[in-house]
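Onboarding guide, step 5: your first structure request.
Type a short instruction followed by the sequence, for example:

Predict the 3D structure of this protein.
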Amino acid sequence: MTQKIDQDHSRFRKIVRGKIKQNLRKYITQGELVGRQGKDKISVPLPQIEVPRFRYGQKNQGGVGQGPGNEGDPLSPGEEQPGQGPAGNQPGEHVLEVEVTFEELAEILGEELELPRIEPKGRKTLTTRKERFTSIRLTGPESLRHFKRTFKRALRRQIAMGVYNPDRPVIIPVREDKRYRSWKVEYLPETNAVIIYIMDVSGSMGDEQKEIVRIESFWIDTWLRSQYDGIESRYIIHDATAKEVDRDTFFRTRESGGTMISSAYKLCAKMIEEEYPASEWNIYPFHFSDGDNWSVDDTGLCIKLLREEILPASNIFCYGQVESPYGSGQFLKDLKDHFSEEEDTLVTSEIKGRDAIVDSIRTFLSKGR
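The system replies with structure tokens like these:
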């Protein structure tokens, strides 16, 4: 029977889950959770959750329905005047930090944004071998001997032979009594995935634009990691040239050069060809830029690389254009001109500010690919 403490804990987790869903848009747009992540869990700041209780009024104030007053007047005596009066000695409202797993957070994100579960593309025909202990057999190594089964078999034998003495219950298994664990080999389909983040770090991409990319990448990571057993993340930055970097460098790099997007797409295509064959991997490139590019010719080369090399290998390719006071935003227009809406491997999103992050995440992940 479930103990009361388990019921209380379950009720508390439901309350916490509801509070997180209620404040999810705020958490996303303000980036509150990005810096609170641990290895498997994340700290979520919540307003203090109080248990409902009766609040009694002051003595000698009369009962219900007594004394002056009109219908609708509050029953509690006096009115609170926020911000007035001397310093007090009563506690104020505190923020409670609750730890939730990334899996729970992903479930909440999926429910709130109505995201479909992803249908893996890669490794549909490849399998991995997994051994599970599912049965018992009469032979095997002593390291796999099943103590309980062996003991019960020896006890039944001694009772049947009439040699069992309940006053002196000594059970000695013989060779025929011994039982051993047996395993079964299962072949499970592998669903590995790689996320390739690409970001424009030219002079027109400021700190606010990079912070928007950092916040959106966190939530994309959280959702995709809940859909796959094994996942890798790679990071490419570019201005006039492109290079692969680690995660910390990806979000902290400050450059001031021009922009040639094709340099990043060439590196991405090379990475996919050499390390992530499309038949074995689910591939998710995400490119974030303010839409500036060096020339029309370079944009043409980008279109060619996307159409011939990157899109055919990817589950989806997502381009997020972050609005910048210095960016023209032309690249998004060029993508829409060259790719029709029916080509659903390419997904674009216009991110005009932090308030647009939620809709951008929904646009990118709502394909279920």
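Each response can be followed by summary notes, for example: The two ends are 42 Å apart (CA to CA).
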